[in-house]
Here is the input.
Amino acid sequence: MCNLLRMDLYRLKRSWSVYFCFGILLLMTAATFLMVWLAGTEEGGKTAVKIGMMTAAQAAEHGSLEGVDLLRLFRRMGLSGGVYNMMLGIQVMLFVCSDYQSGFVKNIMALHQNRWSYAGSKILTAGIVNICYLTGQFAFVLLVNARFGHMVPGVGIRDSLFFISWAWMATTAFAALMVCICIWSRSVAAGTLAAVLLGTGSVVEPLRMFLDVFHLGGWLDDSIYLTLSMGPDRYETVSDLYVYLVGAGFLGIYTVVTGVVLKKQDI
Here is the structure.
């Protein structure tokens, strides 16, 4: 599997899609900070009035940044709304489906008979891309916040490591789900649809609302989407560690299912 992983990382480094998806995340980060500055600060409010974005009366009642720190803002930029999962899922879809579109998967399987190695390599590659995306975006958040004069209060290293580590576990589990769907369907359209609908909660949220009518929606709180939306920002009690169990559990399940699906497929 090490050879497969090395090859996947080499191909990924030369792929335009990995940089394109990351660039969208960075653009979203910059746009979010600009909107927060315009709507949440007095100086930004004056600028918003000048450009016609809001009236003087609205600017006088500009929003407050009280209770908002960098971790919460970082989370709201995409993790809690599903945009981050969607972009990560699209990147995974493009990478996995390219093997089937080009027929390259046949060459891989001819050299590597163990299909579990192929599944493991794809999921490990997705995990590596994921940690690069998360840490890179968070570093960009710190940089842009400094550029805006530390408009949003910072957070400690301990809190940052806790949040990013469990968020990485949960989002890597989602990436593993995308690998599974793409290997099973071999379809760019199916992979894109899954990234959009599952990543943004367009399936989970309506299902939870429907089940709540019968008081049965509570179990969906432990889904990947709602865990990213409702999980703890900081470690306070041992019960906060449940987010690691959710991420590791789904990651293990989707990895096994991916391997089983691949072994039963004809290449």
